[in-house]
Amino acid sequence: MNKISNFDDSHVSISYFKEEIRKFVTKRNWEIHHTPKNLIQAISIEVSELSQCLLFKDDKIENILKDNFLLSNLSDEIADVFIYLLSLINILNIDLTSSFINKMEKNRVKYPIKEFNDGKYYKK
Ligand SMILES: [Mg+2]
Which GO terms describe its molecular function (predicted)? Predict the structure, then answer.
């Protein structure tokens, strides 16, 4: 994937993304359309577009990584999902870092390493 100057995952914070989306939405007066329901539906549609990228295609990771056109499409759709997710986070005034930390702690309790160390997803 292309990198634009120093803007990559190791140099940009969540607050940068949140503010960029907030400015983008505000300058276009799109806040009136950004209800939780609309944004959740938009996220769902973008997830479907992401899924469509692999519909009826070979989904082996080694083949996907060799296909620059497919990778570019996947990257665009992932960004669309992220953009709408950030819009939802903004209007709900959610601190994503806190959400992540809290949910990961719940996941560690729900999926203890002692029980989930062999690749299975569900308890027997
Ligand atoms: Mg899209």
Answer: nucleoside triphosphate diphosphatase activity
pLDDT of 74-84, one tens digit each? 999 999 999 99
- Ligand 1 centroid to Cα of residue 80, in Å, is 5
Residue ranges in 28-119 assigned as alpha helix (H):
36-52, 61-64, 68-91, 96-110
Q: How does pLDDT run across 13-61, given as a tens digit for each residue?
A: 999 999 999 999 999 999 999 999 999 999 999 999 999 999 999 899 9
Fold of 15-94: Helix Hairpins (1.10.287)
Find the 21 Cα to ligand 1 centroid distance in Å: 16
Which residues have a Cβ under 8 Å from the Cβ of 65 and sit 6 or more positions away?
A: 71
User: Which sequence spans correspond to the domains of the chain?
Assistant: 15-94
Report the pLDDT value the prediction gives residue 91, as an integer from 0 to 100: 98
